[in-house]
Amino acid sequence: MPLPLPLPLPQKTDILVIGSGNAGLSAALSAAQTIPTLRVTVIDKSPISWAGGNSYFTAGAFRTVHNGLHDLLPLVNNTDATQASRN
Ligand SMILES: Cc1cc2nc3c(=O)[nH]c(=O)nc-3n(C[C@H](O)[C@H](O)[C@H](O)COP(=O)(O)OP(=O)(O)OC[C@H]3O[C@@H](n4cnc5c(N)ncnc54)[C@H](O)[C@@H]3O)c2cc1C
Question: Where is the FAD dependent oxidoreductase domain (predicted)?
Answer without folding.
Answer: 14-66
